Amino acid sequence: MPLLEVSKLSISFIQYTKGSTQQKVTVMEELDFSINEGEVVAVVGASGSGKSLLAHAIMGILPKNVELTGNISYGGELLDEAKLKLYRGKEIALVPQSVSYLDPLMRIGKQLRTNADGDEQRRERRGLFDRFQLGEYVERLFPFQLSGGMARKVLVSTAALGRTRLIIADEPTPGMHPDDVTEALGRFKQLAEGGCAVLFITHDIEAALRIADKVAVFYAGTAVELAPTADFHGNGEKLRHPYSQALWRALPQNSFEPIAGTQPSRSSDVQGCLFAARCSQAVESCSVSRPEPREVRGGMVRCVHAT
């Protein structure tokens, strides 16, 4: 049984257009996703593909003007608000994308201490600080006194504790020194080897491939492919979805081939395959119905052409 399972998750925003007129804008539609204990699953994709929305939905921190349908289960139980209050910050931890999550009016040391911490957690966090070369003086600083890289290291330290069963790391490494990136990735991998599940959201596919067991490729609010890390090599010939292949070939270290067209901002605007308008393999049927997820060669894909 997966530790975290997302089933048919759809997210819509209720927006005002003119006066009191409202419209519903669907940005994520019927997302299926799961992660097991002891596993690192990386989530990659272009900006606006729904990566951070998934993280915020799991943590229950979406804005109030959101309509959410579908189920999110943790440990086989529906993850409702009561369960979130019980697990959030204890068994489920978020490394947020923005350093603004740090309280600007509270010293770092006070922000690191929680009621759930015992001596073991405090020693563990102090050890992380030492490995990130954050001296004890950092605990006396306010967030505005930290550099961007230091703030990132503090955020990783708040979540990467041994008691955590699920870590959601949302772009945790930008602005960090390469050595610190290696240290952070190593810590996430170490926790996974100890049984923790790590959801690693990133634009940095190379970093993801260093620690991930699987890679989920997001496009326009849904996962179009879930592939073993080993499939990301060469010219992407082992990947199943045309977007995954194009994303891989677009990297500078590969063919550096741009992807023509743009990602739709609202999945509800597209009747058929979300990638059809940009896909060289698209046929008329691709614009008629949305492909269902299916297993192909040990991975999951939403594409009728995948073999």
Query: Strand pairing plus helix content: what structural class?
Result: alpha/beta
Biggest sheet, spatial arrangement of strands:
6-7-8-3-9-10-12-11
Number of helices: 8
Helical residue percent band: 25-40%
Beta-strand content bin: 15-25%
Please give a structural write-up.
With 307 residues, the chain is of the alpha/beta class. The chain has a single domain (4-301), classed as P-loop containing nucleotide triphosphate hydrolases (Rossmann fold, 3-Layer(aba) Sandwich), CATH 3.40.50.300. Helix content is 25%, strand content 25%. The chain has 8 helices and 12 strands. It has an 8-stranded mixed sheet with strand order 6-7-8-3-9-10-12-11, with helices on both faces. A hairpin with a 2-residue loop joins strand 9 (214-219) and strand 10. The mean pLDDT is 90.
List the helices and strands and how they pair.
Layout: E1 4-16, E2 22-35, E3 40-44, H1 51-59, E4 66-74, E5 77-78, H2 81-87, E6 92-95, H3 108-112, H4 119-131, H5 148-159, E7 166-170, H6 178-193, E8 197-201, H7 205-211, E9 214-219, E10 222-228, H8 242-249, E11 294-296, E12 299-301
Parallel strand pairs: 3-8, 3-9, 6-7, 7-8
Antiparallel strand pairs: 1-2, 1-4, 4-5, 9-10, 10-12, 11-12
Features:
eight-stranded mixed beta sheet, alpha/beta, 25% helix, 307 residues, 8 helices, four-stranded antiparallel beta sheet, Rossmann fold
Structure summarized in a few sentences:
The chain has 307 residues and is an alpha/beta fold.
